[in-house]
Amino acid sequence: MAAIQLLICLLFCSTPALLVNSLTDAGDVAALQSLKGSWENSPPNWESNDPCGNQWDGVGCSDSRVTSLGFSSMNLKGTLSGAIGGLSELRSLDLSFNPDLTGPLTARIGDLKKLNILILAGCSFTGSVPDEIGNLAQLTLLALNANNFSGNIPPSLGKLTQLDWLDLSDNQIRGSLPVSTDSQPGLDLLLKAEHFHFNKNQLSGNISEQLFNSSMVLKHILLDGNQINGNIPESITLLPNLQVLRLDRNKLSGPVPAKLNSLTKLGELYLANNALNGAVPDLTGMTALNYVDLSNNNFDPSEPPNWFSTVDSLTTLVMENGNLQGSIPAKLFSFPELQQVKLKGNLLNGSLDLGNIISQQLQLIDLQDNQISSVNLDPSGYSNPLILVGNPVCSNLSTKSFCQLQQPMKTTPYSTSLAKNCKPCPPNRRISPASCDCVFPYDGNLIFKAPSFRDVTNASLFNALERSLWLKLGLGPGSVSLDSPHFDKDDYLDVRLAIYPYSGKKYFSRVDTAGFGLHLSKQTFKPPKEFGPYLFYPFPYGFEGTGGTKLGIGVIVGITVGTFILLLALAGVAIYAIRQKKRAEQAIELSKPFASWAPSGKDSGGAPILKGARWFSFDELKKCTNNFSDTNEIGSGGYGKVYRGILTGQEIAIKRAQQGSMQGAHEFKTEIELLSRVHHNNLVGLVGFCFEQGEQMLVYEFMPNGTLRESLSATQPIEKGKYIVREVRMVMNKTDEHHYGLSEIMDPSIKNVGHLIGFASFLELAMRCVKETAAERPTMGDCVREIETILQNDGVGTDSAASSATDFGTSKGVPRHPYNESLPRKEIIDSESFEYSGSISATIEPK
């Protein structure tokens, strides 16, 4: 009894030491505790005194020091206190998309001298941008957009000579763009910056000629939606890499620089809604130009310029109220990428001739309020909206469709296809595109500031955007949806984005949403180049168990002492539990074959590792088979039906599983990986697969000579393909140690290689795999294990043999089977996700 009392006494006396013996630097602990005290809704696991040792959500550490804070989309509420300056080893700070973070930005932010990334986008900070940010000499990304900052742009930002991305957009910042003088730095010193995003502020004054120079590498200049006046500086034509220029919705005047067409990489040019005058700018030779808007300026009256007939890369031409007169060259309408022509409110006259060749992508021609007197239109050449209301031609032809202001669109905006025959979800939940599960998605508005297209119905473009999202975010097919794409009043493309939990999960964790927010605010996600620069504004996310009570320090002490005693008494049980947990995690991961994607090519238990095959969307295969029509059916069986289709000019055969015959997701993934690796002249090749909307489909090369059975009957000495197995069994001879009695029917390229390692064992396994009934056939897992055993028993597992069997291993160490999924999948976002990589300037540019 005395011994027990002594043990308890020792435990209680040692408890304070246990509580303060933290892996985290004491100064960092104090700073984080102070920050936590100024915030509401902090994550539940922020109750310990050891942020690094207990892995606080969003806190990244290295050698006991806090090096990154990633709190994106965590619903934090409060202010950012000066305590942040105490985290002297901090490299990355991301507080984005916490709209209830308010108040001024503390000047102590300038104490974080090692900071490389500062992202405060989508909060509600007020006051001026602190001058002290200019002290962050290692900063490469500064995103303060979508706040309530006012005051001027600090000239001290010119000291951030390593800066690649500067985004101050969507605030209330006033004044002019600062340039350097003898006494202060300026933005003209940012020679490594690729992005100047200052749109949607209250900037005024002139743009200095000094702001731009030929040593700068700027790609995006976004100044739209301000009150800037004066001329467009000639120096802007010196930027060799410029791709996007938005100067619209300002008060600019004077002529457009004559050498603007020297910007040969420029893809999007927005000069609308200013007071520009002089000649219409000459854009001849700008072969990368997609979008042009010169509307609502004071250009001199002129005929349509020559480049209306030469810049055939155009997708959109907008020049409303531009003093154009004369006739439109028919050549314009033949540009292959052209989608919209909007020339409303000009003085265009004569006869409108669209020519004999009209772009198949052309969706809208708006020529309202001109002087056009007649129309030469081939009814078969163009059937989309043509608007001529307010032209003389409509005085006598008012009943014609082109004389009606409202014309119905023939198609609807793109929307991701959802799983079929799903029941409605309860409020606040949505149906996952890949299944009928009702889950809580992470969603918001994805806004593209300068897209190169105007067709919001283009399924291939939006499918590409979906794929790039789930690849970059480490998810899988059906994990994201896009909905309601439209252009807003500022000519931005607004798309509703939703990201769905996977593998049976209903909610995302705080670590998950912080990771998604970091990818989308840090710009490591690169959309297809047609979409251009973007912003993401997520909606607040309701985490599972939100609103739980917090534990007091007394409760924490009691739990700690009790846990310590329990560990002393039940150490063996704890070790057993840990082992069982790892086994359970591995078993769970084996049931999540499509839960994540491994871009590096390593099999992390995620999407299939393919060799020459690709993923197809359900809509793609549905379209190329005419909705799986009976006329395209070329075969059927117990598995399902086979359809013929044509995709990108290639004939394909689509094997579609019927309900009741589909495999589990893991087995389907394994089959895809295996088939993608098998290539032989006598075997039909796998082109790809579809795994969404409750469908399992395999896409093969089309066989023009009929079915596989018919082809085998024609090319092999065996009379019919269905008898191949029986014939092989009849000629098998186990006493033939080299060829097992199959010498006469073997492919010479196999037979002539000499001794075939493990041939007999492989043949025996193959014959069991083609037994008549499923109960007699081994499972895929049994096959894999038996193949591994054969390889080891017959010497293939040695270094010398493994070097010639690269699909089963490497020449270094024990070979790893390509279908082995025993390794646990790494979480999509862990604490290391917030570690500074030192490569931000090379990865943040959206192409």
UniProtKB/TrEMBL annotation:
GO terms for cellular component: membrane. ATP binds at residue 655. Residues 800-809 have a biased composition (Polar residues). Residues 795-825 are annotated as: Disordered. InterPro entries: Kinase-like_dom_sf, Leu-rich_rpt, LRR_dom_sf, LRR_N_plant-typ, Prot_kinase_dom, Protein_kinase_ATP_BS, Ser-Thr/Tyr_kinase_cat_dom. The chain crosses the membrane at residues 551-578. It is found in: Membrane. Pfam families: LRR_1, LRRNT_2, PK_Tyr_Ser-Thr. Its main location: membrane. Residues 1-19 form the signal peptide. Its EC number is 2.7.11.1. One of its GO terms (molecular function) is protein serine/threonine kinase activity. It comes from the Eukaryota. It is an enzyme of class 2 (transferase). Residues 628-847 form the Protein kinase domain. Keywords: ATP-binding, Glycoprotein, Kinase, Leucine-rich repeat, Membrane, Nucleotide-binding, Repeat, Serine/threonine-protein kinase, Signal, Transferase, Transmembrane, Transmembrane helix. This is non-specific serine/threonine protein kinase. It comes from Papaver atlanticum. The lineage of its organism: Eukaryota, Viridiplantae, Streptophyta, Embryophyta, Tracheophyta.
